[in-house]
Amino acid sequence: MKPWLESTLRELNLTGTMDRPDGFTRLGYSEEEVEAIEAFKKAAENLGLTAYQDQAGNAFARWEGKVDTVVMTGSHLDTVENGGGYDGVAGVLCGLGAVKQLKEGGYQPHHTIEVSCFASEESARFGVSTIGSKSVAGILDYSIEDVTDRHGVSIKEAVEGVGLEWNSLHQAEREDIKSFIELHIEQGTQIEDNGADVGIVRGVACPIRLKVHVEGMAGHTGTTPMGKRQDALVAASPLISFVSNEALALSNASSKPIVATVSTLEVKPNVMNVIPGTVEVGIDIRSVDDELKRRMAAMIKEKCALIEREFNGKIQVDTLVDNTSILLDEELTSRVEQAGKSLGYKTFKMDSGAGHDVMNMAVKCPSALLFIPCEKGISHHPREHSSLEDLSIGVNILAQMLRQEAGE
């Protein structure tokens, strides 16, 4: 299995080596993501599976059972810019690996098994995540069609640019899925810190994402007096420390943690001798406690209103995402935990601070999330890495679960 995992990992990443100093860039609904999905379909067909895509660009590898209700596992192949080759890929790879193991063992499923490769999971391109799985779950907000990337390309334009029809995405919704199990790298060190082999996830801290638009007045840096400036970057800058300090204080005072990050900053015109005229600030807020998230968002909006009164310009705060956090199916999660223990692995119960496709699938069907370790918790970075041993553990647990869920 390990040689197959190693070679297929490279194939899914469209690379001859995982040692890539600049990492991987496969943004949602880009040609690079399309190429990776084609590699997934080829790998699936090599295992004797039927590969197909839906109206949202999601790809599936189908192992036909005696009945059409589907037991599904999988993740995504898109990445952040200059990201790692395991985030998302591990779940797709281990799903295919689990099917390979079952096939080689002579297993015949009763329920149909599918390995999913969801489109545009990362928010790196548009600030909106999990577009593909939201389509499958029937919860995509179609008002996002005009949200643009940094090059001015809208989500609708990107979708249609890879040969899909925006107005057909709703047709991707599914009603035939019995259960969904996602495997993902942890993107942290809790498994390692607790001496465990795998993490059993109870809930997902879905995000609130804000975009703060600060509008001032561009001007010449050498000729505009300091007292007559409307510097948008100066107005926006207090938000950076405010978000960090207030999130820390709120987290320390609460029973459940909260994190908040000023994670993007776009300054225009971004020219050395021009005063910044507009600034867009992206803020990401996460906690499994939805009340904490919304309290933090309200504090940020109040701070922006205060800055606007002091600043001779305009500040607008838009909410890009406000998703309630997801508690995963207790019964299915318990079975995943027992599967791990039955195979001799040490499990650790935890929550996920990162959002994943499973949070959308949980709206549609019983869903569970399994974490494998990633070295030193490094993720969204070229040095992201999970060992072949950890990937093999993931394959073994997924195979055990698919066998149980799909029946004899």
Could you characterize what this model shows?
The protein has 408 residues and is an alpha/beta fold. It has two domains: 2-205 and 325-406, Zn peptidases (Aminopeptidase, 3-Layer(aba) Sandwich); 207-322, Alpha-Beta Plaits. It has twelve helices and 13 strands. It has helices at 2-12, 31-46, 89-104, 131-137, 155-161, 190-193, 232-236, 238-252, 290-310, 330-342, 358-364, 388-406, and strands at 50-53, 59-63, 67-76, 111-118, 177-185, 198-204, 207-215, 259-268, 278-286, 314-322, 326-327, 347-352, 367-372. The strands form two sheets. Strands 1, 2, 3, 4, 5, 6, 11, 12 and 13 form a nine-stranded mixed sheet that branches. It has a four-stranded antiparallel sheet with strand order 8-9-7-10. Strand 1 and strand 2 (59-63) form a beta hairpin. Helix 1 crosses helix 3, helix 3 packs across helix 12 (388-406) and helix 8 packs antiparallel against helix 9. The longest helix has 21 residues, at 290-310. The model has no long low-confidence stretch (mean pLDDT 96).
